[in-house]
Amino acid sequence: MKVNASVSDQKVMDYAVPKHSTRPETKRARTANQRIPKWAYLLFILLAGFVTYRINQHRATEVKAAQPAPRPATVAKAIAKDVPLYLDEIGTCAAYETVQVQAQVSGVIIGRHFQDGSEVKKGDLLFTIDPRPFQAVLDQAKAQAALDQVTLKRQQDLRARKVIAQQDYDIAVANAQKSQGAAEAAQVNLDFCYIKSPINGRIGLRNFDVGNLVGPSSSALVTIQGLDPIYTDFTVAQNDLPLVRKYLGGPNLKVQTYLADGSITPRLGDLYFIDKAVQPGSGTVKVRGVTPNPDRALWPSEFVLVRFVLDTLKDATLVPSQAVQISQAGPFVFVVKSDNTVELRPVTPGQRQEGDLTVIENGVKPDETVVVTGQLALSPGAKIAPQPYAPDSSAASKSAM
Predict the structure, then answer these.
(1) What crossing angle do the helices spanning 166-192 and 132-160 adopt, rounded to 10°?
(2) Average pLDDT over the chain, rounded to whole?
(3) Domain 87-94+228-313: assigned CATH number
(4) Cα dihedral sign, 158-161-164-168
């Protein structure tokens, strides 16, 4: 029994620990087989870098695709310029002078020396009334005056010798003066037979022809109107009176007159008259300017547009009128930053000026860039692709009027 137990124990030990164990050699073989070469590490690094690059590139593409493309828009710089402060009104023209030519003596017209509607100058002969009766009266008066002068001289000689009474001498003096006055009156009446233009102007349609009998009680023979200069009549609303009174008497107060169709260059004239009272019912005040009209382009009673210039605004900030937009919060413009993004800027717009420009009283400074067209697609912070704004000169000129 003891011998068998020993034999069994020996077998167990032999089984547990073999005599020729190969475990250390197996570990070394496995370690040698699992060793990774250096090029594998390099390849792994390159692959990892490539994958990382592709991931970042994909993310950048996604971000770029998510951002909107720059919006096309036209832009312009705000400028500083002297511009007028004005009121725009509608008015009419009136002749600077209007003369109705009347006959001063009675007689038959024997000559007409003008063409209806022509230009005449002061002193031009218009009509001739038969002068023969008046010439006869003048000749008679001159003869009587000459006789009275001879009589007076004789009476002076007799008076010096104290031959005649003082009363006779006084009568001779009175007769000489009376006949001289009669001769002068006859000369005036004879001169009235030759009717001349009293002013420079345009003559109207004649009312009498050769052969008509005319006199002081007859209607006007013809009407002459002076057209250079010409009056520009218009009205100013009583609400604008405080502003007008502020600049009355100023050096920059002018009246600019032009036609609605733009057929003439605006004429710059002076203020001639402003009424002293507001017209009942209309609530307006009459104003009259004197406008140069050398080419007779403006005619009496013609409707015109009037710009009543009150003063000059020095270095006013101007932007194209299209740049000013209206929202529920009020007027605004889009101002372009250096990175081509836009900023919504509230502004206080003033009057529109020549060249389709608008005065900006507050909100924009000169040399700042504003968006002129394309605002509907923009929002604050949006990026734009700016293009220079080219105004339409014809539209600009019309809007200025």
Answers:
(1) 160
(2) 85
(3) 2.40.30.170
(4) positive
pTM: 0.69
Answer CATH for 131-192 from 1.10.287.470, 1.10.3720.10, 2.60.200.30, 1.10.3290.10: 1.10.287.470
Residue 101 exposed, middle or buried by CB count within 10 Å (0-12, 13-18, 19+): buried
Cα atoms found within 13 Å of the Cα of residue 49, Cβ hemisphere only: 6
Mean pLDDT of 58-73: 67
Burial of 116 (0-12, 13-18, 19+ CB in 10 A): exposed
* Residue ranges in 200-309 assigned as alpha helix (H): 241-247
Which single residue is written with the structure tokens 């008066």? 141
Residues 192, 186: contact at Cβ < 8 Å?
no
Cα dihedral 128, 129, 132, 136, rounded to 10, equals -110
At 370-401, the pLDDT tens digits run 999 988 888 898 898 889 988 765 555 545 44
Residue ranges per structural domain of the chain? 71-81+315-400, 87-94+228-313, 104-129+193-219, 131-192
Which residues pair with residue 287 across a beta bridge?
234, 274
CATH architecture of 104-129+193-219: Beta Barrel (2.40)
